[in-house]
Structures are given as structure tokens and as C-alpha cells.
Amino acid sequence: MEYLNPSLKAKFEYQITNEEQGIAFSAFQKKYVRKKTLIKLLCFFVVALLFLQQVIIKPNYTMGWVFFAVSVAFFLFTWSNPRTIKKNLLAALKELEDDKYEFELTEEYFSIKTTFLYDEKSLDKQADEEINENNVNEENEEEDKSFKKIPPRVVFFNKEHVEMIETSDLFVIILQKQTIFTIPKRCMSEENQAAMKDIFSNNLQEDYVFQENK
User: Fold this and answer.
1) Residues 40 and 92 in one domain
2) Which site from 70, 116, 135, 166 is most exposed, i.e. has the minimal number of CB atoms within 10 Å?
3) How far apart are CA 45 and CA 39, in angstroms?
């Protein structure tokens, strides 16, 4: 495939469903959260067992019951917290399902640009009506039609800590262990998928991993 920019190795538009966002975040949690969570759960479980043993031997040990209850409470909170975070995140992202994005990839960087936030015809019609009503000048008209534009996010492989989790259906790009970009394979040609795998794996090395979907 030929592009106007000869350095481009892949270019495509995509949308993300809330379900795909959930799969991507689960992959993120599995890589960065699950191990720490299991360690904390084990610690709280052991502590709870120790205090339970003491109160069984000495039922009137009031502080033992208190510490046992606290340990159980922390255990339950630690167990449920990742699920709560995921649920709240997906609820917040639900409104973004209609947004469209444009992805570009070269050997040195990738960029992601939001190409659709609102119905363009409706937005233009609304802008024209406001212009007629308020009799604004031509300069203000241009500002009104462009204020919702979002500049692309450009990420250079040699300047930011980039990681990739590939699943059977998604490419999940992670920046600084904080920002997640979900790229569905269903929106990509086989050629673009091959370019993604080749360039990201070459640049990221051990930071490129594959996870099976669950």
C-alpha cells in the first residue's frame, strides 16, 4: 500500500467498543496489577488466620477480634478494588464508543488522532444557525467550527516508555504504565497487522508480549 507520506508503514481508522476496552484493561491489570493484588491478598489472609487462631484459643481477646475483622475488611477491599476500578472506567468510556480515530505508524513513531467526535453535518448546521442569530464575523465563524479539533498524539519509540500487549483480537499500547490505547484488529488489514507486529516488536523487544483472550 502506498501513502502520501513515504515513511508511513500503516494507516487506518478505527472505533473501539466498550467490550474491547474492557478486554484491554483486563490485559493491563493482568500485567501490572494482578501479581501485586495476589501478594496483598495472601498477606491479609495469613494475618486474618493468625488472629482467628488467637481468638479461638482466647475468645475474650477483644483486640484479636478487631484485628481479625480489619484483616478481613482489607482482604475484601483488595479483592474487589480492581473490579470496581474497571467497572467505573468502562462506564466513563461508554460515551466514547462512537468516536473514530486515525492511526499512523512509521519506524520511528506512531500517532493517534481523533477524527470524529460529533455528527459533522449537525455541528456545521448548529454553527451556521448560531452565526446567523448572533451576526458574528467570519473570523469567529472559523473559531466556532474548529474549537472541537483535537491535535494528534504523537509518540516516538525512543523518547517514551512504550509497551505492547497483543491479544488475538487487539493491540493494546501502554505508555508510561498509565495510558492505554486499544487498537482492534478487526479494523485493520492483514498488511497493517503485520506492520504493527514487526515495528512494535523490533522497537520494544521484551516489552512486546502476547496474552490469550479470556
Assistant:
1) yes
2) 135
3) 10
